[in-house]
Amino acid sequence: LFSEMMQSRLDCNTVTFNAAISACEKGGEWQKASHLFGSLMERMVEPDSVTFGAMISACEKKGQWEKALQLVFTMMQRKVECNTITLNAVMSSCEKACQWERASLLFSVMMRSR
User: Fold this and answer.
1) DSSP alpha helices (H): ranges in the chain?
2) pTM, whole model, 2 decimals?
3) What is the pLDDT of residues 66-93, one digit of tens each?
4) Residue 89: how many other CB atoms lie within 10 Å
5) Which of 42, 72, 80, 81 has its CA 20 to 30 A from that of 57?
6) Maximum CA pair distance of the chain?
């Protein structure tokens, strides 16, 4: 359905991308979610905290800790609010990959930025 919307040139905004990315996240399809995120960026649609949160959760569920970290730093660069749930998902992703040093560093960076 979402692919048809994009092909028919209907207005795909942040909300529609968020719904599609969240559906992929819930279905364990992190690569499809990542593809949609890339399409969102190509179309110059502004991602929000929901967009990033869904992407980070998708990465966390599939062990993509490096991508999750990259996304949280992109959030910071774009000045998108990183809530506790999103931060926990990134740190959980790092923890599951035995990357506790990175989780600790992220926590320190986030505490300094508040």
Assistant:
1) 2-7, 14-26, 30-42, 49-61, 65-77, 84-96, 100-113
2) 0.85
3) 999 999 999 989 999 988 888 889 989 9
4) 24
5) 42
6) 46
